[in-house]
Amino acid sequence: MRQADVIILGGGLVGLTLAIALDRHGLATLVIDPADPARQVAPTYDGRATAVSSSSWRMLEAIGVAGRLAGRTSAIRAIRVSDGLKPGGILFDPDRDDDPLGIMVENRLLRAALRDAALASARIELLMPARAAEIVRNATGVRIALADGSAAAAPLLIGAEGRNSPVREAANIPLAQWRYDHVAIVATVTHERDHEHVAYEIFYPDGPFAILPMSDGEDGAYRSAIVWSVKAKDGPAVAALPDRALAHEIARRMGGFLGEVALAGPRWSYPLGFHHAARITDTRLALVGDAAHGIHPIAGQGLNLGFRDAAALAEVLVEGARLGLDLGDAQLLGRYERWRSLDTLMVAMATDSLTRLYGVPGSAASAIRRFGMGAVQRIGPLKDRLMAEARGESGELPLLLRGLPI
Question: Which domain range does residue 370 map to?
Answer without folding.
Answer: 2-177+274-395
